[in-house]
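INFO batch 0412 | record 1 of 1 | parsing
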Amino acid sequence: MIKSIQFYPYRLAFREPWRTARETLYYREGWIVEIGDNALRTGLGEAAPLDGFGMESLVETEFVLKESGRSLIDTEIRNLNDIENALVKYDRSPAAKHGLELALLHLLSQAQGLSVSQILANSISGEIRDFVPINAVIGAISPERAAMKAKEYIDRGYPCLKIKVGTQDFEADLQRVWAVRSQGGNELQIRVDANQGWSVAAAIANLKRLEFLNLEYVEQPVVASDLGGMAEVRRSQSIPIAADESVNNLAQLQRVIEAQAADIIILKPMALGGIITAKHAASRAFQAGLDVVITTTIDGAIARQAAFDLAAALPIQRACGLATGDLLIEN
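INFO prediction complete | emitting tokens
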């Protein structure tokens, strides 16, 4: 039974400024959530909203976390369904819900003597993967710096690199991707992320020029709300399309499926309201014949571990975006 809920602010600086769809960020901030039960166990969660992914503000997250004490104290948590039922009222505050859910999952894990991955897997196939491939990220930097970064990541054993494109200078984007390919050869998996940066016509033209570089997929080539445009891009060239900002909740996922707008779904547990909801989203995507990739929203260590736990419980073959800790200064 839940007996206490506490939360503490944190702030982690980016090693380099991070550009979102709306602003440039210099640090990542959020709340560490601690939930205690009557057996003196403590579960840890993380609630860290990020602009541009349909989440509430940091102030709203704090308000919800404060309110949660009134509704969750003395609640009994025996299984995943109990957690979902206890948190359904927080669906419109996904970051806060993520933090509360994760803390409750950690308590359930301790109570059952099972890992979080195993609890999740038991509701799917029961199997946990002992190896989860991950990708590293190369930003919109010069081709020369991109080549240096690529060599560094390849030497560290990364099998897959994601490269930021979608800038106002496609020729620079093209040269950046080519520089990375020249370092890794054809064995290296390369995916690109346009961050909604292209029009439909530009996306089709640009991707046709990128086809010779043997890309795994392109992430969010056009504006997230333009599912018809994404579907047109998907039909008009050969590089698979991944939906990211287009999928911030289960309703949006269903619309992407119905529009046949993507081949791959990028799932961010913080944006979706927790790893349980992300698990449901993955199951729905698999049933529709789509692939899934789990990534973070450049979270702290607690949320990154949770995303890894989810990825390990799912039958995902592609590399997941879980190496974002390198983007933050955590010591």
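INFO post-check: The chain is about 40% helix and 20% strand.
INFO record closed
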